[in-house]
Amino acid sequence: MVIGILGAGQLARMLALAGKPLGLKFIFLDPTPIACAADVGIHLVGEYTDKALLSQLAEQADIITYEFENVPVEIIDFLSQTTSVYPPAKALLIGQDRVTEKTFLQDLGIATASFAAVSSLDELQQAMSNIGYPAILKTRRFGYDGKGQVVLHSEQDLAEAWLAVKNAPCVVEGFVPFDREISIIASRSVSGEVVYYPLSENEHHKGILRLAKNTRNDPLQAQAESAVNAILTELDYVGTIALELFAVRDTIIANEFAPRVHNSGHWTIEGSETSQFENHLRAIMDMPLGATSSIGYAAMQNFIGNVPANEKLLSLSQVHLHLYDKAARKGRKLAHATVRTESLEKFTDLIAALTKLARQSDDS
Ligand code: AMP
């Protein structure tokens, strides 16, 4: 079977690496001439709007999926005329606009930060009387890894913040005083089978995920599963999804969902019975889903901008290195390492060692 993927970045590469043992072949469409998934499948180089290339992708692939959430929905509609595309376009449509997304979550009974849609400085000033400080101004569309976001501490910040977002339609949301950032990753198959991973506990710096760790019997697991299940059911979702959450004492507040495999689930590669990547593929092929139980303590450390010397990383036993084969560039995710061990003491030591190495090489 051939799986087509829109995008040929590291997520596409990891999907392909997970699919090879299942006998799957891969074809990617991505405008970047040198893309990191290119050596694990066929790479069609061209724009996502190129109808001839889209037709070629649809012809050669049995099922199509995507690795990023800004895929224009018209493209999914075009491909769907001939080939099954998962996750469903509705997930993209909702997830691409922060206001639509937060409204959708609230309609499902899932708590979010208080928010208001604003499209001028005047509207922002008015909204702040309800939202209160501190708050975060975010562009409604195309924001990721903290890009397109400004923290507002007082009225004095508003004019400059509005300039920074360049008049783009925005959402302003109350700052959530969270104890932890967590995410739940789940997969749902065409037949409706659903599996959930143990919550991931995530540490961000400058809006970019740095460290993600699995949890054991987290008190918020059941709440998170019920929230993500409501989303999966409402969207008739197929594939792997990630729901990013803030933990505030004993409750969850949803931030956003990603209709794809997710960076906070990379520890599932070595740390779970079945990885988020394999379960995404099984889900879209309507195969039985694999067990999501963790094998011990598991974590993932991202490497941004630079990768520490491979020898240093590989000298840490129970550490697994994943290089994305991407050119080094400031602030770019280039690789990650996962840790898996049965010993909590060893786990703590390995994370400390990895974090130290990552900080030394990080240029963001
Ligand atoms: P986002 O692009 O929405 O995922 O935001 C990136 C990061 O900014 C999050 O992982 C949080 O660390 C922080 N952040 C975003 N929104 C809020 C909020 N309403 N309250 C507190 N922190 C936030």
Secondary structure elements and pairings:
Elements: E1 2-6, H1 10-19, E2 25-30, E3 42-45, H2 51-60, E4 63-66, H3 73-80, E5 84-85, H4 89-95, H5 98-107, E6 115-118, H6 121-131, E7 135-139, E8 149-152, H7 158-164, E9 170-174, E10 180-188, E11 194-196, E12 200-205, E13 208-214, H8 221-235, E14 239-248, E15 251-258, H9 268-271, H10 276-284, E16 297-304, H11 310-314, E17 319-323, E18 333-341, H12 344-361
Parallel strand pairs: 1-2, 1-4, 2-3, 4-5
Antiparallel strand pairs: 6-9, 7-8, 7-9, 10-11, 10-12, 10-14, 12-13, 13-16, 14-15, 16-18, 17-18
Adenosine monophosphate is lined by residues 113, 136, 143, 146, 173, 175-176, 181, 204, 207, 244, 255-256.
Structure explained in plain terms:
This protein is α+β, with helices and mostly antiparallel strands. It has three domains: 84 residues, Rossmann fold; 61 residues, Dna Ligase, domain 1; 182 residues, 2-Layer Sandwich (D-amino Acid Aminotransferase, Chain A, domain 1). It is built from twelve helices and 18 strands. The strands form three sheets. Strands 10, 11, 12, 13, 14, 15, 16, 17 and 18 form a nine-stranded antiparallel β-sheet that branches. Helix 1 crosses helix 10. The longest helix is centred in the last third of the chain and has 18 residues.
